[in-house]
Amino acid sequence: MGGSRTMQENIDLSVIVPCFNEQDNIPVLVERIDKAVRLYGIKTEIILVDDLSKDNTWQVMQETAKKYPTVKCVHHKVNKGIVGGWKTGTEKAQGTYILTTDADLQYLPEDIPRLYREIVKDDYDLVQGWRHATEDKNFIRWAQSKVFSGMLNVMFFMHLRDIKSGFIVYKKKVLMDVLNYKSQYKHFQHLITVAAHCKGYKIKQIPVIFEKRHAGVSYLKNVPIRFILKALTDLPKAFVEYFLKRGR
């Protein structure tokens, strides 16, 4: 476990980062998050969750935590996926608000204060960054996001942009409630805003820049079609749980 703030000091924001084979991204990610939140005086802890990486991610996380006392490190003994990382991080989080982001630096750490200020200012339950301008030229990823967002908007009577984005800040109790689902989903990370919408939470979206991966290889690179097909199987289950049964 890495260092952390004293228990007496209130934490405004917990940033949860699931990590799988991200050894080359972690030092840069933490440095940029730390600089961004310090600039705006946001008392922040960074929770790095190693999802049984095959490289030196765990060792790099621990070394980074020695340099930044606001970093907590958690290690999974089995691979639990992105949502498993969110659940683990949420259990460890002490912040009033929780922000989820990826380790690959495609979402800019410098945008974290923007999301935080929006949720505090207008008292939303969650604020999601939608990918307005992107440097990622992967057509498959772009098409997948458009198709999913369109399908989810139609199925659940929503009018949201880029629903697949995992760059979101929540009230802690809201994220805990949203992650308490009944069905067995393969990729629940894409249904976060669906669950929040159907549970009656207030959602705001703001545009963010989406850049190229800083280092390493995305786990989606070699299996985009298989990933899409698996994700599609979640939609009927979500429709039953969140629309027909209103699974609150």
Morphology? globular
Main pleated sheet: 7 strands, mixed
Strand content: 15-25%
Uncertain residue ranges: 1-8
Please bin the fraction of helical residues.
25-40%
With strands numbered from the N-terminus, the spatial order across the biggest sheet is 3-2-1-4-6-5-7
How far the N terminus sits from the C terminus, by CA atoms, comes to 34 Å
Q: Could you give the count of β-strands?
A: 7
List SSEs in N-to-C order. EHEHEHEHEHEHHEHH
Radius of gyration: 17 Å
pLDDT averaged over residues: 88
- Number of contiguous helices: 9
Estimated structural class: alpha/beta
Description:
This protein is an alpha/beta fold. The protein contains nine helices and seven strands. A seven-stranded mixed beta sheet has the order 3-2-1-4-6-5-7, sandwiched between helices. It is globular, with a radius of gyration of 17 Å. The two termini are 34 Å apart. The N terminus is likely disordered.
Keywords:
single chain, 248 residues, alpha/beta, 7-stranded mixed beta sheet, 18% strand, globular
Topology record:
Layout: E1 13-19, H1 26-39, E2 44-50, H2 57-67, E3 71-75, H3 81-92, E4 97-100, H4 112-122, E5 126-134, H5 139-155, E6 168-171, H6 172-178, H7 192-198, E7 203-210, H8 224-232, H9 234-244
Parallel strand pairs: 1-2, 1-4, 2-3, 5-7
Antiparallel strand pairs: 4-6, 5-6
State the gist of this model:
The protein has 9 helices and 7 strands, in the order E-H-E-H-E-H-E-H-E-H-E-H-H-E-H-H. The chain has about 250 residues and is of the alpha/beta class. Strand 2 (about 45-50), helix 2 (about 55-65) and strand 3 (about 70-75) form a beta-alpha-beta unit.
